[in-house]
Design a protein that fits this description.
Blueprint lengths: L19 H16 L14 H12 L11 E3 L2 H12 L5 E6 L3 H9 L3 E8 L3 E2 L1 H10 L2 E6 L13 H14 L2 E5 L23 E6 L11 E4 L4 H12 L4 H12 L2 H24 L7 E2 L7 E5 L6 H10 L5 E2 L12 E5 L6 H9 L6
Parallel strand pairs: 2-3, 2-5, 5-6, 6-7
Antiparallel strand pairs: 1-8, 3-4, 7-8, 9-10, 10-12, 11-12
Helix pairs in contact: 1-8, 1-9, 2-8, 3-4, 3-7, 5-6
This protein binds pyridoxal-5'-phosphate.
Length: about 375
């Protein structure tokens, strides 16, 4: 199974259910398109529409980071932001650390760019093990560290403040870049953690995010704030993409400005919490012994099954039953986590979904 085939969609999600917030978003974008006059004949500025960047800066301010509009560049999603960050900081052959388990999209990028990878263990509750990272710095000449401090996938872990501060101190001491993947940051229903930028006093954090996980994957709208590498990053965006779609950016900026996004997000967070609880309740009825994380944000939880369960085999058996899961091995380069899997609670609960989950243990033999 390839990493690009991985997604976890149990049956029962209804693609036809469109939340009210998304209807409102679509209206804002349609209005922005209708307002467009001669713009269609021109490219937007490479860093993106200032009104959208202003709205992103306002949201950043709620998370401990007084971002300037000029510090932000719009991208076509967090994956592109991560790509631009790695391109700006690294040369082929450089060594980059990632969390294990961690997002497989980063592993694909590192492979594509010819970068060497060192995996740092991450706790399912508190994320990156900064002590292990410090030890790695004694042995390797590390160029960059890719980290998801808030609701990391696949576990939903969040790093405590002292670990974040320690990480930045290490980055300063060893002269390296921290590439923050903050795509799940705003999904938290108990707290919305500050970004790493809040403790970054030497501009070493490259902040990457998007609207894919909290609003729409299909918008293809993300952003990057490149710290001391920002000018290079904007140049790289210009040479690789020229510009982003102006009417989509303006429509989204209006949706933010008129309060539509904040209202939508409030409802969505409650929905995620409910769906997480429903998933945990159902897992509580399984007779197999499991360890499940219980994140307070993000879209998925991490399940540790008995040692003998091979979740790649489980994946294939489940697929025959029309159930798609994400095996743990995809979240590392080293074949670890073969008895683990990521389960999504991003989709509304349905009977088909619940039945599929009830069937999973019988496929583990
Ligand atoms: C942790 C993480 N980072 C980045 C991405 C890529 O996001 P985007 O759709 O904004 O490119 C994903 C998508 O699955 C993700 O889970």
């Amino acid at each position: 199974m390839s990493r690009s085939a991985a997604f976890d969609l149990l049956p029962g999600s209804d693609k036809n259910d469109v939340p009210a917030g998304i209807v409102q978003l679509n209206r804002s974008i349609s209005r922005a398109l209708r307002r467009q006059r001669g713009d269609f004949q021109y490219y937007d500025e490479p860093a993106g529409d200032p009104s959208l960047r202003q709205q992103i800066a306002l949201r950043a301010a709620k998370r401990g980071w007084q971002a300037e509009v000029d510090e932000l560049c719009i991208t076509s999603g967090c994956q592109q932001s991560l790509f631009l960050a790695l391109m700006a900081v690294c040369q082929q052959g450089d060594v980059v650390t990632v969390e294990a388990p961690g997002f497989y999209g980063v592993l694909q990028l590192l492979e594509q760019l010819g970068l060497q990878v060192v995996e740092i263990p991450a706790s399912a509750e508190t994320g990156l093990d900064v002590g292990a990272f410090e030890q790695t710095l004694q042995r390797w000449d590390i160029k960059a560290c890719v980290v998801s401090p808030s609701f990391a996938t696949p576990t939903g872990a969040s790093m405590p403040l002292h670990a974040r501060v320690h990480l930045i101190e290490l980055a300063e001491r060893h002269d390296l870049a921290i590439i923050e993947d903050d795509i799940y940051g705003e999904s938290g229903w108990l707290v919305v953690p500050d970004t790493l930028k809040a403790v970054d006093h030497s501009n070493r954090v490259i902040h990457c995010s998007s609207l894919s996980k909290v609003l729409s994957r299909d918008l293809r709208l993300g952003w990057i704030s490149g710290g001391r590498w920002h000018d290079d990053i904007v140049r790289l965006k210009l040479t690789s993409q020229l510009a982003s779609s102006r009417f989509i950016q303006r429509g989204v900026a209006d949706f933010f400005a008129d309060g539509g996004y904040a209202a939508y997000l409030r409802r969505y967070r409650q929905q995620l919490q409910r769906q997480r609880d429903q998933l945990l309740d159902l897992l509580g009825t399984w007779s197999v012994p499991i360890r499940a994380t219980s994140p307070a944000g993000g879209l998925a939880l991490w399940l540790e099954l008995p040692e003998h369960v091979d979740t790649i085999k489980l994946y294939n058996r489940a697929l025959d039953e029309g159930i798609v899961i994400t095996p743990g091995e995809l979240f590392s380069m080293s074949g670890k986590f073969s008895n683990c899997l990521r389960l999504s609670f991003a989709h509304p609960w349905t009977r088909a979904r619940a039945e599929a989950l009830m069937r999973l243990p019988s496929l583990m033999a």
